[in-house]
Amino acid sequence: MVNSEWPRVTIESLIASGAIIAHKDGNYGSLYPRVEEFGTVGVPFLTAKSIINGNVNIDGAPRLADGRADSLRFGSVLPDDVLLSHNATIGRVAIVPEFNGRLVVGTSLTYFRLDARKLLPRYFAAYLEGADFQNQLAAVMSHSTRNQVPITAQRTLTVIVPPLGVQEMIARTLRTLDDKIDQNRRTSRTSERLARAVFKAWFMDFEPVKAKAAGATSFPGMPQAAFDALPSRLVDSELGPVPEGWTVGKMRDVGQPRREQMTPEETDGDTPYIGLEHMPRRDVALAEWGSAATVTSSKFRFRRGDVLFGKLRPYFHKVGLAPVAGVCSTDIVVLHPKSSDWMAWLLMLVSSDDFVAHTDRSSAGTKMPRTNWSDMAAFTTPLPPSSLAGAYQREAGPMLELITASIHESRTLAELRDYLLPRLLSGKVRVMDLQIGNEVTA
After folding, report:
1. d(CA 259, CA 333)
2. What is the domain range of residue 357?
3. Tell me: the pLDDT tens digits for 232-291?
4. 357-407 pLDDT, tens digit each
5. Nearest one of 81, 125, 126 to 102, comparing CA atoms
6. 60 assigned to some structural domain
7. What global pTM score does this model have?
8. How far is 416 from 174, CA to CA, in rounded Å?
9. CA-to-CA dists, residue 257 to 252, 288, 375, 377, 381, angstroms
10. C-alpha 345: how far from its chain's center?
């Protein structure tokens, strides 16, 4: 039920009143980009798969060259536009975040641009996510043989519009939860940058060895025992100067694939599923995953802490650490270290620019550009002693655990938000003005 005091109006009437300034989709007709026109650089091209758990996965979107994006006369979205997936995958909702550059939507998305003086994006997105609007989408689908809700049909659907003050209170309540989720995301990014900086200093630039050669007796952030065990000079190798005593080896010397297949019968609605669309671009940890409830073919099993690597171009830049156990697309290579001391080192190696460039080169010229385990395993790299890899694991491991804990907390907060939304929208929960210290009351 919804609050009977609040008017129910059609989207068409919200457009007529100016509350909705723009209501468009990404149907470009004959100008729609072809598969081969997408790559890893350019303007992010958002589709229904780009909306995951109410967030817009900009990093994971395929790219369209700037010139090609210029040929699309509409479809560019702005921050605070509300996105709705209406084709193939129906009913996903998200608000476009702040971003640099441009974003373009594909044919599976509709965007709503609102006049925030009349209709708040946060409230409107909440309503679209709620049971009332989702049921309307389902009703349209039940009368069609096509898995879509076209833009003309959307305009006949209705929205409950409370007074702006009530919209603001609901939005403020949701913002409290979203702010904590954003804080977790910022903490994760800071931890990731620190872990990467340490990896680069120790294993790529050899800064502690150079410092020792210059007479230093310690190195900031490195355990003293690890520093004392370092050599004091670099020697020539096929890769250039490397610390004395290190070997030049292959990625396969420390990492190995996990090739455990799972059939649809072995999964259920609670089994986490990670596809290429869930993967960000070389984040330390994967922040998103879906459900394997609709898995219809065999997938690969992964364990918590495994490294996932997208092997299909343009997804070579998609690498991350699995925060849960589950199943993933067969277009993802599942990796794990031969020894737990090498886990953080392996993650940083396969998400490095050099490794990604290697996989890109190895697939060049093939009809279906993709890398494979053999090409990945052959990547040549300086290998430190296992004791130094273990020291890095002890330094970076807590950072990775913090990131993983933040991800799980954020999912719990998102579930709380989803639980609260319909109750706020129905009037079963009344939100008082939080600025004057009142509680949320039922």
Report:
1. 8
2. 252-384
3. 999 999 999 999 999 999 999 999 999 998 888 888 878 899 888 787 776 777 777 878
4. 888 787 766 666 778 899 999 999 999 999 999 999 999 999 999 999 999
5. 81
6. yes
7. 0.74
8. 10
9. 9, 22, 12, 9, 18
10. 22
Domain end residue (candidates: 127, 147, 162): 162
* Tokens (6 digits) for 362: 């190895």
Measured between alpha carbons, how far is 259 from 377 in angstroms, rounded to an integer? 14
Q: Is 136 found in the same domain as 17?
A: yes
Handedness of CA 181, 182, 184, 188 (dihedral sign): positive
Structure tokens at 11: 């989207």
The reply to whether 195 falls in a domain is no
How many folded domains does the chain comprise? 2
Task: Round to whole Å and give the CA distance between 51 and 57.
Answer: 6
């476009």: which residue's tokens? 96
| Spatial distance between the Cα atoms of 61 and 46, rounded to a whole number of angstroms | 6
Question: For 312-434, where are the alpha helices, taking DSSP H only?
Answer: 343-350, 353-363, 373-377, 386-426
Between CA 145 and CA 137 the distance in angstroms is 14
Answer whether residue 245 is part of any domain.
Answer: no
Domain boundary, last residue among 110, 131, 162: 162
Helix (H, G, I), strand (E, B) or coil at 8: strand
Q: Tokens representing 321? A: 């650490």
184 lies in some domain:
no
